[in-house]
Every structure is written in C-alpha cells, then in structure tokens.
Design brief:
2 domains; 9 helices; about 180 residues; single chain; about 75% helix
Length: about 180
C-alpha cells in the first residue's frame, strides 16, 4: 500500500503542474492511476480512504482532461465514458447521468450508445428523485427503437416496464413476484 501512496503523491505532482504537462503525460498518469485503483485491495479504513482519494483525483483529472479543447473526439468520448462508469460505480448518479447525456448529445453515434441509453433510463427510473417517468420512457423507447439486435427477452422486459411506469422500481419488482 505504501507504493500506492507514493504513486498517488507522484500523480498529484504531475497533475498539479497545470498546462505545462502534455496530453500524453496526462493520459499516461490517468492510466497508471486507474491501474493502481483497480489493483488496490484495501485492508483497513486508512487504505480505503487512500483509494477513495485516488478515485477523487482520477475524477478531477478526467474532468479537467475532457474539457481540454485540444483533446480529439474519440479519446474525449472514451474519457467521458470512463467518467460515466466511475461516477456510476461510486453511486454518484447525478454526475453519471450528466456524463451519459453529454456523450449521447455530443457523440450520437457512440459505440456505447445502447449502454448509455439503458443507463440513463435506469438512473432516471431508480436513482433520481423525484422520478421523471417521461425521461425513463424517452430513453427506453430510444433503446428499443435503435437496438435492432437486442435480445428478445430483454426487449420484452423493457416493454413490460414501460407499461408500468406508474410504479416505482420496488413496486414493479414486488408486482412481478406475485
């Protein structure tokens, strides 16, 4: 874990250098930080705190990097998607949704489009208060319309969910159990 702390300190120095750092250095630092977070297996609260600090540093770095006007589209889209996944994994649904909607708007032909449509629908359905059923419906309908290769069972599940949007997800699940 000392290596992780050392790497965190090193990455902090790299990122705090500001605009002098070139994109390749920043990308490399982001990749190393991602690897360290993935490899970390915290054993106590202090180590959990250190990993959470690294995640926050990664979020800050990615947010800064995706807003760099020199960053080219395919890489920018990939980093925005990483932000979406990271925010989702950390339970920050508002920011995950912002990233999903930004990608869908700026990159309408994204290779991750179907994942993002489903994610946005799910976030609106389960994690945003008050629930916005119009947004749930919008994203699920787009997904059904656009994903021609969707598994038939998944398609049926989404269609069924759309018929019962008046129910919260918890109520819907309970209804399915009876």
């Amino acid at each position: 874990m000392k290596n992780v702390v050392y790497l965190f300190f090193l990455l902090f120095l790299v990122f705090s250098c500001g605009p002098k750092s070139d994109a390749k250095d920043i990308e490399s630092s982001i990749e190393h930080l991602e690897e360290q977070i993935t490899a970390a297996q915290p054993q106590n609260m202090e180590e959990v705190t250190q990993v959470n600090e690294m995640k926050q540093q990664l979020l800050d770095s990615l947010n800064e990097f995706v807003n760099d006007p020199k960053l080219v589209a395919p890489k920018k889209e990939a980093y925005l998607f990483k932000l979406h996944l990271l925010y989702s994994g950390m339970g920050n649904h508002v920011y995950a949704l912002r990233m999903a909607e930004r990608i869908l708007k700026e990159y309408p032909k994204s290779v991750n489009r179907f994942i993002l449509l489903e994610s946005a629908a799910s976030i609106y359905d389960m994690n945003i208060t008050p629930r916005d059923t119009n947004e749930v419906k919008k994203y699920y309908q787009l997904l059904l319309k656009e994903d021609k290769k969707m598994d038939s069972n998944k398609r049926k599940d989404i269609e069924k969910r759309l018929k019962h949007l008046d129910l919260s997800m918890e109520e819907y699940i309970l209804k399915q159990m009876h």
